[in-house]
Write a structure and sequence with these properties.
Shape: globular
Distance between the termini: 41 Å
CATH architecture of the largest domain: 3-Layer(aba) Sandwich
Number of helices: 15
CATH superfamily of the largest domain: HUPs
Helix content: 40-55%
Largest sheet: 3 strands, parallel
Structural class: mainly alpha
CATH class of the largest domain: Alpha Beta
Oligomer: single chain
Radius of gyration: 21 Å
Number of domains: 2
Length: about 350
C-alpha cells in the first residue's frame, strides 16, 4: 500500500479487515457546518458524494454544530440550520436507516476526545493551519480559542469512530494531514502502533470547486451578499433559471478547448458545473458546446440544473416542514453513533491512564 499523502510505502491498514469481510471498503466520517444556506458548491463538493459512497462504506454523516460556534451564531438560527443540513443529506439520497445521520453536539465523545487531542497536538501544528490564518486575519488576539483549536476537534470527529476514510476537498487536505499527525503521535506516545487508523482521504477531483455565478475567480459562498452569486439547494426551478440566465459571461462564443476555457474563468466555471451535474468530463462538455453562443449553453445548463436539483430542493422543503421526522432521524443517529464512540473513548481513557474505578 502507498501512503496517499507522502507517496511512501506503508504497511497494510489493519483497521480495514473488519470492513473487507463485510464487502465494504472501510468506514467514512464526514460533516457539514450548519451555517447559512446550502448551495450548489456544497452539493457537488460533498453532499452528492455522501449518497454515492454509502453502498461501499459504513458511513457516519454529521452536522458539525460544535464547529459552527467557533464564531458567534444566533441560537434559533443554528437549530434551524442544523435541521436544514440533515434534510439535505436525506433529500440527496442518504438512507437514514442504513447510514448514521446525527448532529455532533449529541455525541459528547467528540468533545471528550478533542481534549485528549489538545494535549497531543502541538501549538506549532495549529498555528500553521491555513484556514485559521485566513479566518482570523490580522485580529488574532480577538478570535475565539475554539477557532484556533478546532482542528483537534475535527481530528476527534474522525478518530472517535476510528474512521478509515474521509471525503475531502482540496481546502480540507491540511486538516486531514493534521488528523493523521495526531493519530501517529498518539499511537507512538502510548506504544500502540495500530490504535488509531491513519485515515486516508477520498478526493473527488474535477468540478468540485464551484465558483461564484457573479465572479468566476471567487469560490461560491454562503456569505456572499448577492443571492445571484449562488444556486441554493432550496431554490425552485424559476430561481435556478433566473440565476443561470444572469450568471456572468464574456462576449465571446463558447471555448473550443480546455486551455481556452481555463483562460476565461466565468465560462470555465459554468462548463465545470455542467460537467459535474451531467457526470461528464469537462473536455467532453467543451467539445459539445464549442463555438456555440452562450445563450444556447445557458439554456442547456438551466434544463440540466432544474432536472437534477429541482427534486432535491422540493424534498428538502418537504422535510423542513416536518421537523419531528428530521429530529427523529438525528436522535436515532446520535444513539447509534454513541454506541460506536463510547467504547472507543473508554479504550482511549484506559490507554492514557485515566482511572476507571
Amino acid at each position: 500500500m502507498t501512503d496517499t499523502t507522502t507517496g511512501a510505502a506503508q504497511a497494510p491498514n489493519p483497521h480495514l479487515a473488519a470492513y473487507n469481510t463485510r464487502g465494504l471498503k472501510g468506514r467514512i466520517l464526514s460533516g457539514v457546518q450548519p451555517t447559512g444556506n446550502l448551495h450548489l458548491g456544497n452539493y457537488l463538493g460533498a453532499i452528492r458524494n455522501f449518497a454515492r459512497l454509502q453502498n461501499d462504506y459504513e458511513c457516519l454523516y454529521c452536522v458539525v454544530d460544535q464547529h459552527a460556534i467557533t464564531v458567534w451564531q444566533d441560537p434559533a438560527q443554528l437549530a434551524a440550520q442544523t435541521r436544514e443540513i440533515a434534510s439535505a443529506f436525506l433529500a440527496a439520497g442518504v438512507d437514514g436507516n442504513k447510514q448514521i445521520i446525527f448532529n455532533q453536539s449529541m455525541v459528547p465523545e467528540h468533545a471528550q476526545l478533542a481534549w485528549i487531542f489538545n494535549c497531543v497536538a502541538r501549538m506549532g501544528w495549529m498555528s500553521r493551519m491555513t484556514q485559521f490564518k485566513e479566518k482570523a486575519g490580522k485580529d488574532r488576539e480577538n478570535v475565539s480559542l475554539g477557532l484556533f483549536a478546532y482542528p483537534a476537534l475535527m481530528a476527534a470527529d474522525i478518530l472517535i469512530y476510528k474512521a478509515t476514510h474521509v471525503p475531502v476537498g482540496e481546502d480540507q487536505k491540511q486538516h486531514l494531514e493534521l488528523t493523521r499527525d495526531i493519530a501517529i503521535k498518539f499511537n507512538n506516545d502510548f506504544s500502540q502502533p495500530d490504535f488509531f487508523p491513519i485515515t486516508e482521504p477520498l478526493i473527488f477531483g474535477a468540478a468540485t470547486r464551484v465558483m461564484s455565478l457573479r465572479d468566476g475567480t471567487k469560490k461560491m459562498s454562503k456569505s456572499d451578499p448577492s443571492d445571484y452569486s449562488r444556486i441554493n439547494l432550496t431554490d425552485d426551478a424559476d430561481a435556478i433559471a433566473q440565476k443561470i440566465r444572469r450568471a456572468k459571461t464574456d462576449p465571446l462564443p463558447m471555448p473550443d478547448t480546455l486551455e481556452d476555457a481555463e483562460k476565461r474563468p466565468d465560462a470555465d466555471n459554468l462548463l465545470g458545473i455542467y460537467a459535474a451535474l451531467a457526470d461528464q468530463e469537462k473536455d467532453a462538455v467543451v467539445a459539445q458546446f464549442a463555438g456555440r453562443q452562450f445563450s444556447e449553453f445557458k439554456t442547456a445548463l438551466t434544463e440540466l440544473a432544474v432536472a437534477k436539483l429541482g427534486p432535491i430542493g422540493a424534498e428538502m422543503q418537504r422535510l423542513m416542514k416536518d421537523p419531528g421526522h428530521v429530529d427523529g432521524v438525528l436522535r436515532n443517529g446520535a444513539q447509534r453513533a454513541r454506541a460506536i464512540a463510547a467504547p472507543i473513548l473508554d479504550e482511549v481513557y484506559r490507554t492514557v491512564g485515566f482511572l476507571r474505578p
